[in-house]
Amino acid sequence: MPQGPSPKTSIEGKLFAIVMLAVILGTGIPFGLLQLGANPILAWSAGMLLALILAFALLRPLTRNLNRALQSLEGGLLNFRDGDFSISLALRRNDQLGQLAELYNEVGEILRRERAHVHQRELLLDTVIQSSPLALLLIDHSEHIIYANTSARHLLHDGKPLQGHRLQKILPLCPPELAQAIEQRQDGLTSYLDGESSHTLHISNSTFVLNSQKHRLILLREMTRELTRAEVQVWKKVIRLISHELNNSLAPISSMAHSGKLLSEKIDSQQLAGVFDVIADRCRHLTEFTQGYARFAKLPPPSCEEVNWSTLVKHLQPLHPFALKGELPLRPGYFDPAQIEQALLNLLKNASESGSKKEDITLQVETDPHGQLLTIADRGVGMSDKVLEQALLPFYSTKPQGVGLGLALCREIADAHGGQIRLHNRSEGGLQVSLWLPWPDSR
To answer: How far is Cα 182 from Cα 158, in angstroms, rounded to an integer?
Structure first.
C-alpha cells in the first residue's frame, strides 16, 4: 500500500521545541537577574515561573488541537462501528494526525464503494429472485416467513406481502393439497385444482443454519403442462412411425419363418427348424414390445361408466396383492374401467418392484363432491428428487429392463379423464401415488 507524504513537523518535534524553549527561558532569565544583582532565590523563582507560564501558553493550543483531532477520529470510528461510512474528517494538519485523517478518509471511501457495490449486487439478486417463476419461501426457527418472492406471494397470498406472517396462518388460504404438501415437508410432485385449471408443482424443502438459527427454505416450481404435453405428442408421433415400420417388416419375416419351418420339417432338419423357431419367437417378442408402445401412442378416448368399487378391487387383487385401506365409498366410481384398471395395475406393479413388503402395499379409495381419489402407497426405496421430476415423462426409467411407459401411460389415462396424478415420497420411507379423477358434472 503506498504511503502518504511524510509530515513536515511531528508532534514529538513540537513538544521537544516547547520544552527546550521553556528550559532556555527558565535558565536564562535567572542568570540575567543575577547579573543585575537580584536575590538568587527570587531570580530562580521568577525564571521557573516565567518558564511554566511560557510552556503552558505554548502547549495549550497544541493540546487543544490534538484533543479536537482525537475526538474527530473517535467519532469517525464510532460511525464505522455503526456501519456509517459517509462521514469524512476535515482535518487540515501538517503532522501525523493529519496523515492519519487522510488515511481514515481513504478507508471510508473504499468502504463506501464496497458497500455500494454490494448493494448493487443485492439489488440485482433480489430483482432476479423476485422475477423468477420459482416460488421461494424462507422460514425461520419460529415458523415466521422472513422472505418471499413475487411468485410465492401470488401463489400463496393473492399477491399480498408474506413477510412476518406465520406459515400456519397462510396455509389455510392455499389449496388443501398444496397446504398439506408444505406442512408435511413433502419433496416431490403435487397437483391441485384452481377453478377449472389444474396445476402440478414440484416442492423442495431444505434446512440450513443462518445467524445460529435453523431456517427452512421452500422452493415451489410449477411444471409447465403445455410444454410437457407437446413433448408427449412428439414422442407419440415418433412411436407411431417406428411401430408402423417395424410392423411392416415383422409381418413378412414372421410369415417367412413359418414357411421355412414347414420346409425344414419336410427335409427332416431339426437344427434348421430350431433356427426358424428362434426367429419366430423373436418376431413375436418384438411385436409385443411395439404393441406396448402403440398402446401409449394410440390411447383411445375413455369410455366412462359407473363402476362398482368392490368389482374393481376383486379384479386387481389376484394380479398384484395389496391391502385395502379404509372403507370403499358408497357412491360408485365413474371412469373407463379398462383404462383405470390398467393404470392401477401399472402402479401396483411398480410398488411391488420397489422393495416394499406385500403387506405394506395399500390401496385407498376416497370420494368427495369434486371427484374420486385412488391412492397407492408402499414402503419401498422411494424416488430421488431428480427421478420425481422426470418420472412421468415417456421413456424415462430407472429399471435395467424398463421401457419408461408405465407412469407415462398412467398420466395419459388421468389426463384423458380430466384428472391428475401426483407422486411424493412418504415421510417414513416409500412412495405414494395418487390418481384423482373428477366426476362427470365437475369436469
So the answer is: 17
